[in-house]
Amino acid sequence: MFLIFLYFPISDDQLHNFLTNPLRVPNLPYVNTQEVNPHFEKSQDQRPTCRICLKTFSSKGNLKSHMNIHTGDRPYKCNVCGQDFTHHTVYRRHQKNYNH
């Protein structure tokens, strides 16, 4: 399986709009995800969803981090080598692998 990340430049206002106005994902043949997997806490239409690629997330914070992919923001920067990252987990992995 190949994943393609597309870069779509968007303004801060557009990003705020994406994060504050949840997108309604079309209903699936079942009423909600809990009918398929009772361990799911939220149905598909209640989960924060990226309006650009339609990926759903368990929290607004995860969606906000994901939006860095689309905006091109790289808020995590290595103090040693200067490389920057879109997500804190990738930054921490870099620090661990290169003993930074």
UniProtKB/TrEMBL annotation:
Q: Which Gene Ontology terms cover its molecular function?
A: DNA-binding transcription factor activity, RNA polymerase II-specific; zinc ion binding
Of the GO CC terms on this record, one is:
nucleus
InterPro entries from the entry? Znf_C2H2_sf, Znf_C2H2_type
Q: What is its main location?
A: nucleus
Protein's name according to its UniProt entry: Uncharacterized protein
Where in the cell does this protein reside?
Answer: Nucleus
**SMART domains membership:** ZnF_C2H2
Keyword Nucleotidyltransferase: yes or no?
no
Q: Which Gene3D superfamilies match?
A: Classic Zinc Finger (3.30.160.60)
Q: Keyword annotations for this protein? A: Metal-binding, Nucleus, Repeat, Zinc, Zinc-finger
Report if keyword Mitochondrion is assigned. no
